[in-house]
Design goal:
single chain, about 270 residues, alpha+beta, L-fuculose-1-phosphate Aldolase, 2 domains, 9-stranded mixed β-sheet, 11 helices, about 40% helix, elongated, binds 1,3-dihydroxyacetonephosphate, binds zinc ion
Length: about 270
């Protein structure tokens, strides 16, 4: 058990590739952004000795709903551009301890580092999303340029923000029919922003942190990434056109038609029909 090289594990390859793509797209400058991926015990056990805890790191909050669960998480202060070439120093795999208060490190953070400072938001969001969707496995946080730019010039109201995004690409309402939740600017890295994010995650798979960035949730890395990517595309079109006279627009009746044709359960209260 646990004798295959974890650097070749499909879950690790997909994770570091996601970090590289986020970096390449300019969403994650320096150490900006973080990713957490819920792993199944049997997939971890194929690569690591799950009885050998390398280090125990206090979480700083109670994660009892995740006791015994395994996570692959980016390290705090680590640059996204370096994740793919050096996963052992930049990411870690840990299990939530039996008392729910510690991370039992099994691999990674080799230079003595630890998980992201945004772990409260990640783990609390996992707890919230798992209640809505037992298959949810990924929470990711990022600072995508146009989404952030839009934060400074658009009202931070969930209905209005979502509606503007839906108007910018035909497929937006199909990709995120549940819309985008929004938190006002808050101090990051705290348990309070974690609790507020998780509360929004009961309702939304996308949560904007006012003037900071965005969170996405999904069953897979691709799903969470794709949600943020679609918001970012719509935000880019908004920023490219916001100062120009609007000649054409996708109408609310057309968005309704799209949502019904693709059979998605959309936020009807976010349309003006
Ligand atoms: P970390 O380096 O601790 O992951 O923090 C980055 C970040 O984006 C904070 O919101
Ligand atoms: Zn951030």
């Amino acid at each position: 058990m646990g004798n295959k090289d974890v650097l070749n594990a499909p879950f690790l390859r997909a994770f570091v590739k996601t970090a590289s793509n986020m970096y390449r797209l300019g969403w994650d400058e320096r150490n900006g952004g973080n990713i957490s991926y819920l792993l199944h015990e049997d997939e971890v056990a194929e690569y690591l000795n799950i009885n050998k805890v390398v280090r125990t790191i206090p979480l700083g909050f109670d994660a009892k709903e995740l006791i015994g669960k395994y996570f692959l998480v980016t390290g705090t202060g680590k640059y996204f551009k370096n994740v793919e070439e050096d996963p052992a120093n930049n990411v870690g795999i840990f299990r939530i301890s039996k008392d729910g208060l510690n991370a039992e490190l099994l691999w990674g953070y080799e230079d003595g580092g630890k998980f992201t400072s945004e772990l409260p938001s990640h783990l609390m969001s996992h707890i919230a999303r798992l209640k809505v969707d037992p298959e949810n496995r990924v929470i990711l946080h990022s600072h995508p340029t146009y989404t952030l730019a839009m934060n400074f010039v658009h009202k931070l109201d969930e209905k209005e923000f979502t509606h503007t995004l839906w108007e910018m690409c035909t497929e937006c309402i199909v990709v995120f029919p549940d819309g985008v939740g929004i938190l006002p600017w808050m101090l990051c890295g705290t348990n309070s922003i974690g609790e507020a994010t998780a509360k929004k995650m009961e309702e939304f798979r996308l949560v904007v942190w006012g003037m900071h960035g965005i969170y996405g949730a999904g069953k897979t890395l691709d799903e969470a990434f794709g949600l943020v990517e679609t918001v970012e595309k719509a935000a880019q079109i908004y920023i490219l056109t916001a100062h120009l006279p609007r000649v054409n627009t996708i109408k609310d009746s057309e968005m309704k038609e799209l949502a019904e044709y693709f059979g998605v359960n959309y936020r009807k209260d976010f349309l003006n029909l």
